[in-house]
Specification:
10% of the residues lie in helices and 33% in strands. It has 359 residues and is mostly beta strands. The strands form seven sheets. Strands 3, 4, 6, 7 and 8 form a five-stranded antiparallel beta sheet that branches. Strands 15-20-19-18 form a four-stranded antiparallel beta sheet. A three-stranded antiparallel beta sheet has the order 1-2-5, with no helix packed on it.
Length: 359
């Protein structure tokens, strides 16, 4: 059975709240019973429809002093206080959860937030949590499953800046989920299927899905057109990039014209420009520079035998261009190489997908 798509939607939530013990000291020599300790937290920030954000906190214990005010405060800088932007929720009647929904925040911006409580002794704050707002509508893409992707304009093209992780076509038709190794081994050149690397759902959230080429182009014969015309697994308004569009992309990155039609490793540092920098998700030594914002991730691939290969070392992306019956072109990146690999391979392999925006 396909996995529950709500996993990805739930992971859009930002879970960074930490339990906070705030002690109101009114006499250093006087001991406090547990009931006299004011205990409160900031728990999480949930993303809601309409680009609004719900802050949640909890008052676990009211303490020995009367609480005159409580709420949240936030700012773009560290350690926000009620002197920054704040909401006043009044005097709580009893312990419990308290929430507030805020809208109008700047897109693609990191905010620092704290819960606070005010008594006659002053105002105390919870530990701080940081959340990042969604990109603006023009910089993000939402697929039919509700997954949200960052996008990036690079030259004259706009690309997804994350690997695709959708489980249905844009019209709601499910893409066959193939988990079993022997079932994958028996896929033929006309079979559609996808999976998560090692059949681990969290790998799918981070690195995206691995799709057969036939599933990627939704059974079409492929295309070399510029711009491409095969939507395939991509959301509405987007399509699977063709060989020609990849060539345009590589020219923009600095590859020489005569190298475009070559096979295997091509270029000098063009692949390094595409990869996310650092070793957070790539194996060391990652030769990625991260300068384009494409943020290529090493999702590995699934061999025709059903074996999983190359997580954290290898990225492979399908094009929409076939090569004869049952084969298709792809682009590859490696953790220890700065070029871009070009080759064709059997359509029953499982590779990552990046979509490009329709012109």
């Amino acid at each position: 059975m396909p996995p529950d798509n709500s996993f990805f939607r739930n992971l859009q939530r930002i879970f960074k709240g930490l339990l906070v013990l705030s002690l109101l000291t009114y006499n250093a020599c006087q001991s406090l019973d547990e009931e006299e300790i004011l205990l409160f937290t900031i728990d999480k920030v949930d993303i809601l429809p309409g680009n609004s954000y719900e802050m949640s906190g909890s008052i676990v214990n009211m303490g020995h002093l009367d609480i005159k005010e409580h709420g949240f405060c936030w700012s773009e800088t560290e350690t926000p206080t009620v002197e920054n932007t704040a909401v006043l929720l009044g005097s709580p009647r009893k312990p419990g959860v308290f929430t507030f929904t805020v809208s109008g925040l700047l897109p693609d911006t990191s905010y620092h937030a704290r819960a606070y409580v005010t008594t006659e002794s002053g105002t105390v704050y919870s530990d701080e949590m940081v959340f990042r707002t969604l990109p603006g509508d023009e910089d993000r893409l939402i697929d039919i499953d509700g997954n949200i992707y960052e996008t990036k304009q690079i030259g004259d093209q706009t690309w997804m800046a994350e690997n695709l992780k959708v489980t249905r076509y844009a019209d709601g038709t499910p893409i066959p989920f193939v988990e079993d190794q022997m079932e994958w081994f028996h896929l033929n050149r006309e079979t559609r299927g996808y999976c998560w690397y090692d059949n681990v759902l969290t790998n799918g959230y981070v690195y995206g899905g691995l799709y057969t080429w036939t599933a990627t182009v939704r059974g079409s014969a492929g295309s070399e057109l510029i711009p491409g015309r095969i939507q395939g697994v991509c959301p509405d308004g987007w399509h699977v990039p063709s060989e020609g569009e990849w060539n345009q992309f590589e020219l923009h990155l600095g590859m020489d014209q005569e190298e475009l039609a070559q096979m295997k490793w091509r270029g000098d540092d063009e692949g390094g420009k595409l990869k996310e920098a650092g070793t957070r998700l790539w194996k060391s030594p990652n030769t990625g520079f991260g300068e384009t914002g494409f943020n290529a991730l090493p999702g590995g691939y699934r061999h025709g035998s059903g074996e999983f290969i190359g997580l954290v070392t290898t990225a492979r992306f399908w094009t929409s261009t076939g090569r004869g019956y049952g084969f298709a072109w792809y682009r590859g990146l490696e953790y220890d190489h700065t070029g871009i690999y070009r080759d064709f391979i059997g359509s029953y392999r499982g590779h990552s997908v990046r979509c490009i925006k329709d012109e």
